[in-house]
Amino acid sequence: MISERLKAARPSLSDLLVGAILWGIQMLASAMVALYLRNGMETAHVRELAMLYFAGGVLAWPFMLPLARFLAHRRSLETRFAAFFVVLAVGTILMTAFLFAMDYRIFYSAWHASFGSLTWVFQFVFTGASAVYQFAVLGIRLFLPLGLLCLFGTSIALAKRMR
């Protein structure tokens, strides 16, 4: 049973590569539309935000697609939709938050202690936690409203495609 489920969860290479690029483009478009609607893209960090949201989508897809397919195997259409919807949403948010935290960490690393020390570990953990909190408060909003529509459409398409 598990081996059958694992086999069904394995997407083709083209599904992984093309899907990752398309999902990244959708997340990029979502962030840009949200920035435009909120402030007409009047920010000095448009390029960096575009790269962050694109990379978050591209890097989340190869991990989340097999997981969602694993959970959706031999389930009803509604359950497959729910699996894709939840896994893609959570995975994309977590990957984008992780990338944001690593960028945050790189910026603040100039003021941190030497690598491997106990102080460094505390600084690393709390800098990452602060970045994830900041992303949760400010960054998730850039997935709305277009990202939600993209998530809905992609989840429906993947659920219908998988039998």
Textual characterization of the structure:
- By secondary structure, the chain is mostly helical.
- It has one domain (2-161).
- It is 81% helix and 0% strand.
- The chain has helices at residues 2-9, 13-39, 46-72, 77-108, 118-139, 146-161.
- Helix 1 (2-9) runs antiparallel to helix 3, helix 2 crosses helix 3 and helix 4 packs across helix 6.
- The longest helix has 32 residues, at 77-108.
- The radius of gyration is 18 Å and the shape is globular.
- The model has no long low-confidence stretch (mean pLDDT 94).
Q: Which labels suit this protein?
A:
163 residues, mainly alpha, globular
Break the fold down into its secondary structure elements and pairings:
Blueprint: H1 2-9, H2 13-39, H3 46-72, H4 77-108, H5 118-139, H6 146-161
Strand-residue proportion: under 5%
Q: Structural class from helices and strands? A: mainly alpha
Helix content percent band:
over 70%
Distance between the termini: 16 Å
Q: How much is the average pLDDT?
A: 94
Annotation field: number of helices: 6
Topology pattern, helix = H, strand = E: HHHHHH
Query: How many separate domains?
Result: 1
Shape: globular
Tell me about the biggest sheet? Answer: none
* Low-pLDDT windows of residues: none
DSSP summary, beta strand count: 0
Radius of gyration from the alpha-carbon trace, in angstroms: 18 Å
